[in-house]
Each structure stands twice: as C-alpha cells, then as structure tokens.
Design a protein that fits this description.
Number of strands: 20
Structural class: alpha+beta
Largest sheet: 6 strands, mixed
Distance between the termini: 60 Å
Strand content: 15-25%
Number of domains: 5
Radius of gyration: 27 Å
Shape: globular
Helix content: 25-40%
C-alpha cells in the first residue's frame, strides 16, 4: 500500500516542480494510517513557515482543503474527506497534535480481526480491564502508551520468520479501526505506542473458567483523538477497559535498537563534569590535526564516520551490503536507494551525504583520482571543519542509547540496562535535555521484564521505572505500617517527571557512572533537594473550544498556531544558553584569576550601561 502525494506552495498557490514545469515534486508513503482510512483518495502536501497566514493555508491549485498538519507539514485532500477526519478527530487540535500518526510511513502492516484487551493504565483505576485478568497483573503489563503483543502476532507483524536476525525486540506501532467493524461499534479509534512480545497464550486469567484468546494488550493511553474537553460533553469519549474483538489495522513503525547518543547538550549544565572528557577530546583533536593535510586519510576517516553515524541511527541505518559491495553500488550513485523508507524523501542533505559517501568510498577502493577534484576537496574540507566544531562542543562524546519500556518491578531510582552489571550506578538522560534535573544517577537492577519469550534479553531496550508520587507515598505508608524505617522521601520530581518519559518509542542514553566520577558527583550534588531546579510542569495539550458555545476556530488558524515556529527545540536552546552562562560564571569563580574576573565584571557592566 503506497500513497503518491504531490507537493505545492500554499502562498503561491502553485505546484512545486522539480524541473521546468514538467514534473511535480511527489513523495511516496507506504503503509500509512491515512491510506487505511482513505484507500482510494488523492492527497497533496503544502508547507508553512513563520510568514504563513491562515488565509494562505486556504489556497490549493485543485481546490483541496486542509485536513491534517504535522508541524509545518500540511496535508490537503478532497472536501468529502473532512467529515471522516472530523469523526476521527472531533477535537480539532488533534488534527495537528497527532497528524504524524496518520502521515508516518510504516515498515509492515496487517488488517484483520484480533482480540484486544484494553487496560486502564492510570494510577486511579490501575489495571481495570473488564475482569479478564487480575487488575494487579494487567497493571504490570501496561504503561504510558506501552502494552504487550502475542508472539504469534509479533511474528506476523514483523515478518520475523523471513528475517536473518530473529532476536525479539520491542516494536513501535500505529493502529486504527473504524466504526461498525467490531465490538467497539460507535466511533473511529486510532493510536500509537510500543508493544513488547509476550507469551499471552501462557497468561494467568482472573477466572480459570473464562480464558478468551488475547492477541494484544493496549493501554487506554495509547488511544488518541477523543473530545473529552468539549464544553458541552464528549461526542467521542475515551474507550472503556475490556476485551474487544475488532478488525484492526496494525503497523510496525520501528523496532528497538541499541545505538549511541551524543551528550553534548549535557556539558553546559555540568562544568565540573567536563574534566572526565578532557583527555578524550584532546586525543580526538590530536588525531584530526595529524591527518587533516592528507586527503587519502581524511577520505577514509570520512567514510568511517559516515558508517558509524548511520549505524547509530535506527531510522537511517545502512544495509550491510552497502559497505561490502561498494564496487557494485558505484553504478547506481544517483539512485539513493539506500535511504531508509522512514526518512523524509525531500531531505536533500541526506541524499547528498549518501551520494558523496558512495563516491568517495568507491574512489578509495579504486584509483583515488577523484580525491583531487574540486567537489570532493570541498566536501572533505567541510567535513574537517565540522569535525573540529563537533570536538569543540563535545558532540563526539556519546552514551549508549536504547528504547525505554516501563516496569512496575522497578522503584524510583532504579533502572535496568541489560548489558550493564547488576548493582552498578548508571548515568541516564533523555533528549531534549532541559537542565541538570534531567541527568539521573540510578541503580542497575536486572528484572524479568528485560527477558524475551525465548529466554534471551530483549534487544535494544532499557527498562525504567514509572513510579509516580501516589505509588511512592503508598510504598512509604506500607513500610511504616510494618515498622520499617524509611530512608527515602517522596521527591519533588520522580525520575519519570525529570526526564518527561513516555513509552511510545522514546530513547534514553546511559553510561556506567564509575567511568565518569566528576560528572556523577556533580549530578548527585545538583539533584539534592536544596540544589535542584524547581520542577518543570508538563501541561496537557490545550484545545481551542470556545467555552461559551463549544465552537472551534477554522483548522487553518489552529495549524498555524501548532507549527514549528514555537517548537520545543527552540525553547530548549534558549534554556541551554542560560545554563551555559551559569556554568561559565561558575568556572570563572573557581578557576579564574583576579584579572579575568575583573574583566568579566567590566564587560557585564558595560553591557547594561548600553541598554
């Protein structure tokens, strides 16, 4: 299943051409939720920027209308599609908040009748599932957008039997169904999350006399698109916990995979911790200085860095054959066949990088004549400059990275990185990194939730705690009731809150704390209650209902408001700049001479005098 989508410019109200008005720029998307809901419809993409207005977004060369948005990416379709879109997302803000769920291409997809157990994953009604399983067991099997999938269904969705590597991994998924095709007969449903392969055929039922087949366990939090905030009452309330026999479209978006995560964004928050990395950065700088005048060695290093970078990105991993059979691939330099299916097809930078990598790799394997051409010389010069920049900002420093899943076996302050030793202290953080609160020092604990159905560790995952304040307080009360002295308190922020964790495919970076003693000591110091930043409150997505009559503004206005001009990344950069300034002052106070401190104060004074 593939959609071919044309691109146009809403401001000019014209198609975008790749040549002199002969070929319209098109993009192919495979296995999308959008095509499941609209199998025979034509769509097109528009794009917004900081200068776009809601009136611009009403333009279209063929009269199509705006249906969905994903940041600056706008999906247009026929007017008759709007009625269905409004049933799927009656709260118009969801047409922007969850547009990517509909537009994201997936690897594989199935559409068939399944037995779906929906479990309430909230703390207030923990584990409610209609009495099929005990609430305690059901609660342990779910988390925020996290559930379980039977091994039989896992094999079918991931095409496991046809894979060379048959290791079990957690899958990131998308799903949807329509009204009238199952026991949930009233409304359209869609959602996303992660699923862990699990022997659901061996599960313990609440009633031994009632053992219905379960193919998949989904938490309530995976279901998106309700209008519970509608002032006059919901027309599409959230799904109720229970067992549903439902025709469902289920797709595999990605699989968990271990890789590397840059820690450059941490360094601004930990001026003392930089001591742990000074020697490594110095060695990298010395190596680069020693090779930068030899084009052949620089070219080999260019290819080495490209291959490592691709291996560390789960969505743009090079196939092994691309590195082995370069002589064959040089015949197809312009095709860009090796771009991952999930990568944006209009990402010209990624295509250019792939082209130059193949060109240089093939020349190294051949006669090395192209290294003297102007294009290759410019590319290698740009590469050397970027390497110097990466060393300067610490971008070359990395932690191990993997996808996170939750476990009720872990308490706040505990983590399970399966490849690290039991009992070790583990540094861990999630990107984007806001401030020093986000670097946790947790104790490694090996638990059953890390184990796959075949008894081996699940590949590419880190198990984390999702303990909230209510559960921590209950644990304290229980221990005190048994006469046990409690040596911990309910913190201002749990580890989940400090890293804003959810489990729809998020990854974190981890490393042994013992390898970085200065960073660990500073992280522990900065996260003591008296030193930590005030908690960052994560607000829920805001709807656009008029409180008086329940009406909503045109979606064009909502799409402009939800565009990338107010992105988390931009806000995070501003916060990081402030933290870097605080760290600069701390370094100056600790290591600066009297003259350096005096000059700094003069600069600050002069700056404020000019304001």
């Amino acid at each position: 299943m593939t959609l071919e989508i044309k691109h146009f410019d809403p401001r000019l109200n014209q198609w975008i051409y790749t040549d002199e008005r002969k070929t319209i720029l098109t993009e192919n998307l495979s296995n999308t939720l959008l095509e499941f809901y609209f199998p025979d419809k034509k769509f097109s993409f528009g794009h917004s920027d900081e200068y776009s207005t809601d009136e611009d977004l009403k333009n279209h060369p063929d009269g199509q209308i705006l249906l969905l948005s994903s940041k600056t990416r706008l999906l247009y379709g026929e007017k008759e599609c709007l009625e269905t879109i409004q049933k799927i997302c009656p709260d118009s803000k969801d047409r922007g908040a969850y547009g990517s769920i509909f537009l994201g291409a997936c690897k594989n997809a199935i559409h068939e009748e399944l037995n779906i157990l929906v479990v309430d994953d909230s703390t207030d009604n923990r584990g409610e599932n209609g009495g099929i399983l005990s609430n305690d067991l059901a609660y342990k099997l779910v988390g925020d957008c996290y559930g379980q999938i039977s091994t039989q269904l896992y094999d079918k969705v991931t095409l496991r039997e046809s894979q060379v590597d048959k290791s079990y991994r957690v899958i990131q998924h998308r799903f949807g169904w329509v009204d009238g095709v199952g026991e949930d007969t009233t409304k359209y449903r869609f959602g996303k999350g992660t699923l862990r392969p699990y022997r659901l055929d061996k599960i313990e039922y609440a009633d031994p006399k009632n053992k219905p087949k379960i193919d998949i366990i989904l938490p309530v939090s995976s279901f998106k698109g309700t209008d519970k905030d509608r002032p006059k009452g919901a027309t599409k309330p959230q799904i109720k916990p229970g067992l549903y026999q439902q025709n469902i479209w289920l797709a595999e978006k990605a699989q968990s995979q271990q890789g590397q995560m840059s820690i450059s964004q941490l360094l601004a928050s930990f001026p003392q911790g930089i001591k742990d990395f000074a020697e490594e950065l110095e060695l990298l700088a010395q190596r680069l200085a020693s090779i930068e005048d030899d084009p052949r060695i620089v070219a080999a290093y260019y290819c080495e860095r490209y291959e490592k970078r691709k291996e560390s990105l789960s969505q743009s991993k090079l196939k092994a054959s691309d590195i082995i059979n370069q002589e064959t691939n040089v015949k197809n330099l312009g095709t860009n066949d090796d771009l991952d299916a999930d990568q944006e097809l209009d990402d010209e930078s990624a295509k250019d990088d792939l082209f130059m990598y193949k060109l240089i790799k093939a020349d190294l394997l051949g006669h090395q004549q192209l290294l003297e051409t102007e294009k290759v010389k410019q590319e290698l010069s740009r590469f050397v400059q970027s390497e110097w920049r990466d060393i300067a900002i610490g971008k070359t420093l990395t932690f191990d990275r993997a996808m996170i899943i939750p476990s009720k076996e872990l308490k706040n302050g505990e983590i399970c990185a399966p490849w690290l030793e039991q009992g070790e202290k583990v540094l861990n953080f999630r990107s984007p990194f806001l401030n020093s609160n986000g670097l946790c020092v947790s104790t490694n604990k090996h638990i059953k939730d890390r184990v796959a159905p075949d008894g081996e560790p699940l590949e590419g995952i880190i198990v984390v705690n999702d303990e909230d304040h209510k559960r921590i307080q209950q644990r304290i009360t229980e221990l005190e009731g048994r006469g046990i002295d409690v040596d911990f308190i309910d913190p201002a922020e749990t580890e989940s809150e400090r890293q804003a964790r959810d489990f729809d495919g998020d990854c974190i970076g981890v490393a042994l704390a013992s390898k970085y003693p200065n960073l660990t000591a500073e992280a522990e110091y900065r996260n003591q209650p008296q030193n930590a930043y005030a908690p960052t409150v994560k607000l829920k997505k805001q709807s656009f209902y008029d409180p008086t009559d329940g009406t909503q503004p045109p979606f064009e206005k909502i799409a402009i408001h939800m565009s990338d001009s107010i992105s988390v990344g931009i806000i995070n950069n501003q916060v990081t700049a402030l933290e870097a300034l605080e760290s600069e002052i701390e370094v100056l106070k600790t290591y600066g001479t009297f003259e350096q401190k005096s000059n700094y104060l003069d600069q600050v004074s002069n700056h404020y005098e000019t304001l």
